[in-house]
Amino acid sequence: MPGPAPVQANCKAWSKMIEFLLLPVALLVCFAAAVALIFYGLKLVYVIRGKHGLLPYIFYFLTFGNIVLGLTCGRNLSAVIDPGQVNANLNVELPPSPYYVMCGRVVTVLVLFAACQRIVRQLMHYRNKPDAPVLLIVTLWFFFFTNVVTTAAFSAHPSLEHYYVYLVLVGTASLLLNRGEEEISICTLRNILFVFLLISVAVIPWNLGLVMDNKYVEGIVPGFTYRYSGLASHPNSMGLITTLFLLCLWNHPFGNRFINRSAWIAGCSSLLLTQSKTSWIGFLLCMFCMGCFKHGDYLKRRLFDYKNPVLSILFIFTVMTITGTLLAVVMFGNIGGKIDSFFASSTGSSLMTMTGRTQIWEIALDEWRRSPVFGYGLTIWDEAHRAKIGMPMAVTAHSQFYQTLASSGVVGMAGLIVYVAALLWFTLKTAKSSQGLTLAIFFLLFLRSISEVSIAITGQWDFVEFAHLLLLTVIGGQFKLDSIKKANNALMTYQKFSSSRGFN
């Protein structure tokens, strides 16, 4: 039996051999990484110097940063005991990893470069009558001024951070997109969100607690205790992501039928597993909205086709069946007792209090009463404020109205109302040309604003801002398309009028 000395000698020999073999492998990997870096660097330069620039592709960079954050956060949703802890934002639960910090800086530089490139290019080619939505750009900056500038300077807790200007710059650049570039952005977001969903699913067998909570007891299906977050910060955020992905997928399907069906299966499955009722309702409303614009003319013809009245008869029969069922339930189903028992349960209590949000709203109102004009400040709901109020998991006011009122006061609320009104106006103007996509995204933001903060003007590159940026992107591209169509129609009318006068 060999003694310890020969064993140690063998170990040293093996370690030297491994080091000798690893050295060329490491050099080969470094060489391949350098070649790939040069290749993608040249590709990036080509994209920057190309016709469209880098702006239509920013969703690739933003989503990549969020994927890195989700993979390196180190959370374990299965180990959470208190259900309220699940509601915490991922960025607040755990400090970001050094990989994400480095990646986030690179993403920020690329995105800001893309935005500034587009703004500078537009200013260099500025005309007396620009075809950009100037009114919406002005109201966006008014929203920024009333919710960031005045709040940062005159609120009860003044503050100044460099990331306050990120979203307003990118939003302005998104409204300056050229005709057709919004389709590139839609396809970009569709592609990268599909990759995000696939990576989130691939993590399940490797680390279930990173993407799913297996102790959720407030779901609709009895006994099903799983709630899917994916690599997003929360199931509600995952519901927003999948809804946005499915809207982009319906607006611009994949060319390959197998990939398209797989994408629909992945999106719908992820949306169901989130068990987010708000996201489900938003998805149905958005799909109905887009369906009315995409197939409204066909349905109108079929409903009023008296020669072939199958669809109209089916529609009338369905309405009569649903109405009769509801009347029967109300008359003979003891509906009052069932409603009382439902609201006496934990689920009904959560519904009445919006899962504890009413307490957060009361705190937000208290902060507004202390500083009614300019609000508490942009540092509301930070770690110090949450420690003061004794609610460590309240990272936002869980309502766009209460968030703006508490942080920016009456001045900020005025800016929000003006901006939302302008956003709705341009949404309605571009709804038909976008096949209902802008109106569907606006509905999604409006519905989410009831219980979450959906129109943030400050913050980092989270998935929550994706819907807002995509709406501005589509409005910017479709507004130019509508302007071109109006100009062509006016030119054709003028030519017809001139030819008719010349003929006479």
Largest sheet: 2 strands, antiparallel
Helix-strand sequence: HHHHHHHHEEHHHHHHHHHHH
Q: What is the total domain count?
A: 2
Average pLDDT figure: 78
Adjacency order of strands in the biggest sheet: 1-2
Keywords: Ligase, Membrane, Transmembrane, Transmembrane helix
Membrane topology: Multi-pass membrane protein
Subcellular location: Membrane
Domain O-antigen ligase-related: 268-416
Descriptive tags:
504 residues; two-stranded antiparallel sheet; 2 domains; globular; 19 helices; mainly alpha
What would you note in describing this structure?
The chain is 70% helix and 1% strand. It is mainly α and 504 residues long. The protein has two domains: 47-303 and 355-492, no CATH class; 304-354, no CATH class. Strands 1-2 form a two-stranded antiparallel ribbon. Helix 6 packs parallel to helix 19 (464-503). The termini are far apart. Keywords: Ligase, Membrane, Transmembrane, Transmembrane helix. GO terms for molecular function: ligase activity.
